[in-house]
Design goal:
With 212 residues, the protein is mainly alpha-helical. It has helices at residues 19-26, 41-58, 78-93, 102-116, 136-143, 155-168, 171-175, 184-196, 205-211, and strands spanning 10-13, 36-39. The chain is globular and about 70 Å long. The protein starts with 9 loop residues before the first strand and ends with a helix. Strands 1-2 form a two-stranded parallel ribbon. Helix 2 (41-58) runs antiparallel to helix 6.
Length: 212
C-alpha cells in the first residue's frame, strides 16, 4: 500500500474459506478499512445441488404430502437436480455487474414457479417475456403458439424444497455474487504449482525456488 498506493478491499473465495478469516485477523490496513468477502459464483451454484441431494438423503424412506417419495421417476431425480443447479447458476451469472440483487432473486424464483407450472395452472409470471425468452411458455405466448408442460415437478416436491430456494435467494448472499466471477483461475494456478512440485514427491531446492 505504501509503495503502490492501492489496497485490496475485496476477497473472493468459497463459503468455507479460512483464508478470509486470517486476512481479517491480520488487519493489515487498520480498523478504518473494511475488507469485503465476495462469494465464488461457482461454489454458490454448487450449493443448490448439494442441498437438494442432502434433502433427498434425509427424506429417503419418507413420504411427502401426496403420499409419494421426494425422489424417483417424475420427481427429484439426479438429472433434475443437475438442471436446477445449472439454472440457478445461470440466474446468478445473467445479472453479473448489476448493482442490486433484485433481478437475480426474481430469476431464481422464476425457476421454482416454472417447474411448478402445469397446463391447468401455469405460473410463468416471473419468467422473462418475449420470443427470445428461455421460458418456452412465454416464447410460445409471444408468437401466438401453444405450449404443453412436460417437465414440471409435483407440487409436493417443490413445497419440500422451497426452503432451499428461500435460503439460496437470500439478498445478502446474492449481493456477494453480483461481481459474477469465480475463484477457478486461482485454483488453476495452484494446480499448476502442485503438478510440478506434488506434496508426495521430493524436489530439490532449486526446483522449489523456480516454481515458487
Amino acid at each position: 500500500m505504501a509503495t503502490r498506493g492501492c489496497r485490496y478491499v475485496n476477497y473472493l473465495g468459497d463459503g468455507d474459506s479460512k483464508g478470509f478469516q486470517k486476512v481479517k485477523e491480520a488487519n493489515v490496513y487498520g480498523d478504518n478499512v473494511h475488507i469485503e468477502k465476495l462469494e465464488c459464483c461457482g461454489h454458490v451454484q454448487k450449493r443448490m445441488g448439494f442441498r437438494l441431494r442432502k434433502k433427498c438423503k434425509e427424506m429417503k424412506g419418507k413420504k411427502l404430502s401426496d403420499g409419494k417419495s421426494l425422489s424417483g421417476r417424475g420427481r427429484l431425480t439426479d438429472g433434475e437436480i443437475n438442471k436446477l443447479q445449472r439454472y440457478y447458476g445461470m440466474a446468478i451469472r445473467r445479472h453479473a455487474g448489476s448493482k442490486n440483487p433484485i433481478d437475480m432473486k426474481r430469476d431464481i424464483w422464476a425457476i421454482y414457479f416454472h417447474k411448478l407450472s402445469t397446463d391447468n395452472n401455469p405460473q410463468h409470471g416471473l419468467c422473462p417475456p418475449g420470443k427470445d425468452s428461455w421460458c418456452k411458455f412465454r416464447k410460445a405466448e409471444a408468437v401466438g403458439g401453444s405450449y404443453e408442460h412436460k417437465n414440471s415437478l409435483p407440487e409436493a416436491v417443490l413445497e419440500e424444497i422451497k426452503p432451499i430456494f428461500r435460503d439460496l435467494s437470500d439478498s445478502a448472499l446474492l449481493t456477494k455474487c453480483l461481481h459474477g466471477h469465480t475463484q477457478n483461475p486461482n485454483e488453476s494456478f495452484n494446480n499448476c504449482i502442485w503438478v510440478r512440485i506434488p506434496k508426495t514427491v521430493f524436489v530439490c531446492l532449486n526446483t522449489l525456488k523456480v516454481v515458487c
